[in-house]
Amino acid sequence: MKIVICGSMKVSAKMLEAGNELQELGHEIILPRHTQEYAEMKTSDHIQNESVKNKINNDLIRDYYEKIKASDAILVVNCDLNGVAGYVGGNSFLEIGFAHVLGKKIFLLNDLPNSFFKDELIAMQPTILSGELKII
């Protein structure tokens, strides 16, 4: 299966881990551009600044839409972040919406976050993996 990996760049190291495990399981993966570089950055402030600049300069939101369109599924690496269990940020929410509208399978690595858009997440019917990528 061709799987696009989504998530906050603040958890880019976890995205790399998930990607490696999925490849070992025989899946083809697509990671956000510069995931390795973000994983090596030392501060979340630096990651945030670089992430915004890259989104604008490289039209990354449209680029990732096209990648989702050409895939079979997305995996959202929704780790605990910013004091929220199973954090799903703005970009990941957009990507889940893209996948839903395109009829792609949606996988979340961890449980849904308690957020103001939880109802919308539930309505898009993602498969919750509870940390078990072998379920895919």
Q: Into which percentage range does the β-strand content fall?
A: 5-15%
Which structural class is indicated by helix and strand composition?
alpha/beta
- The overall strand count is 5
How many helical stretches?
Answer: 6
CATH topology descriptor: Rossmann fold
The figure for the number of domains is 1
**Largest sheet report:** 5 strands, parallel
The appropriate CATH architecture is: 3-Layer(aba) Sandwich
Helix content: 40-55%
Unreliable sequence segments: none
Separation of the first and last Cα atoms = 9 Å
Broad CATH class: Alpha Beta
Strand order of the largest sheet: 2-1-3-4-5
User: Whole-number average pLDDT?
Assistant: 91
Gyration radius over CA:
14 Å
Characterise the protein shown here:
With 136 residues, this protein is α/β, with parallel strands linked by helices. It has one domain (2-135): Rossmann fold. 46% of the residues lie in helices and 13% in strands. It has six helices and five strands. The chain has helices at residues 12-24, 35-40, 44-57, 60-69, 90-102, 118-123; strands at 2-6, 28-30, 73-76, 105-108, 127-128. It has a five-stranded parallel beta sheet, with helices on both faces. Strand 1, helix 1 (12-24) and strand 2 form a beta-alpha-beta unit. Helix 4 packs parallel to helix 5. The longest helix is centred in the middle third of the chain and has 14 residues, at 44-57. The model has no long low-confidence stretch (mean pLDDT 91).
